[in-house]
């Protein structure tokens, strides 16, 4: 038994062993040169006696073994040449058995046995059976392992397999398999026994050393996988049961894990598929400490790749009911290994789902079954806190999204949202973003209210605060990105049938209204525009032709819109709400719904009066109101007068004079619409322009009083351009004399401001005069109209 020693001691013992091998090898080579068989056997036995040491670790012992192995190759060449030693190989086989110690004797016997088989003077199976039985005489774990490894190495090319030079009569393949299996069984027993060598205090070191020796055992399985003539029936009836029996019965964590890994890697995929039940049964019988999830994962990966290799093999998976067997085995492993961490169970489910999606992509019931099993396991855990397990759950949920280009397919999985419910808020949001990105990537259209309901349940982490304590912790930039993603998603919801589309809008609205004041400004606008698009679709199909009892009518949609925007205006977000009211008013006008359009304008004016206090926001709002009102032609005289009066009144009450002026002259367009049926009230246009002119004059005077100069004449030039516009449109109340007077006024303002006779220094004014001059030179009817104007 190897005693505990330092690295220096082991190095010393190794050096001594190598020196002993080299010393005896020298005399052996001298005897070889002299063809002296007796001396060759004597010194080769002494050389091989150095391998009897128990002081070295497996790694050091391997170094020593390789020195001896190199010498054994020279010895084998000598034994092959009968003319050199003068002894028949049969007699030589008997002679080496008289070596004094069993270890040198067995090495010499294996070497001569190799020559004996090559000579074909005895059947290969008989010699191999004799050798594998006699090797049982060496029971020291490390020495026995290396001896049997040598036997496996020298016999590899001499097995009586089909097609080899040593093929025997019937059952020749079985003889080769029996030899390898017997050698494997004995090597595995020796390997397992190493853990019982020495005191328990060095168990960790022993496990490391055993791990270094595992390939010696595994090589036997590689040989089994390469033997010609091992068909599926033989593998199923003989090879696999014998190997699995050894794996299960050894009751050793390291051996069970490594050997199962070897089985999966060295034997063909189609064999695994046809013997799946036996493999999985063995997995459920492994020691609880064995990492079974990796074994099962490797098996499922092999089978998945096999299924992907050719469509022709898929029917085999159905015949053997691969999914059901894998699912049951994974369930048993998870149930029996009570100490398996949650991340292990999730890893198994991910592998099973990957297998299912690759082998049975059309069986959504299988996919949902895997997700359901995951839900059951997650339900047994109070709270999922392991970050690695969380990552596996995300991988589980992402797999269907990546597999099915149509996200709608994933939405039919009933257990999908139940798995998401077990994620924490942060991971839930990550998963929701992945779902939206998948929809955008595949350009999927969600077209039914039921599927929209499921979808919004899945992404509820983005729509509302799942945990109030985390509501304010999110980075503002990340928050905006999330909400913009939800907004983009709303535009992917569509259905050609108005009734179903209205249901979709109602489902989305119900979910969005729970979002709180931070989210509504992002999510309400796309919902409003989606509803307005439906209104225009209905209007193009004939509007309310179906009557008020129809499921989807513009009036019903506008009622929903009014309630939705009202919620937004109370957030408060008045500027956005005002814009949306005006959009709805324009849509109502297109549907010829005057009362509805008037109501939306009323709401817009109320917001302006009560909520919008910022002067810049007021200017923007007035211009939006005027622009929208100018485009609407549904109003009767009374309603239009009321609204235009309000608009002009608000324009004149803006804080800054320049803003007042621009808003008032913009209102002039409310009285002159350039359409065949549009209003054309030239007198009120002129009143607006003159009012704007008075405000501009007041602004100039204020500038002169406060700054000492009247300032730029931009407002006058802008009003001049309005005069020119309406003059060209044929407003009879705008005369050439009005334009002439305004030009002179601007010239005077420029002269007084500059203090000299230089005029036309304002670029805008210069361009305007150039335009008038161009029209006059162009001639025609319009040129004649401009003739009275003198520049």
Walkthrough of the structure:
- With 791 residues, the chain is mainly α.
- It is built from 40 helices and no strands.
- Helix 11 runs parallel beside helix 13, helix 25 runs parallel beside helix 28 and helix 29 packs parallel to helix 31.
- The longest helix has 27 residues.
- The N terminus is likely disordered.
- Its main location: cytoplasm.
- InterPro entries: Vps35 (IPR005378).
- Belongs to the VPS35 family.
Short note summarizing the structure:
Helix content is 72%, strand content 0%. It contains 40 helices and no strands.
Number of helices: 40
Major β-sheet profile: none
Content-based structural category = mainly alpha
What multimeric state do the chains show?
single chain
Principal-axis shape equals elongated
Radius of gyration: 47 Å
Poorly predicted regions: 1-5
- The proportion of strand residues reads under 5%
Mean pLDDT metric: 88
Helix content: over 70%
The total beta strand count reads: 0
The first-to-last residue Cα distance is 121 Å
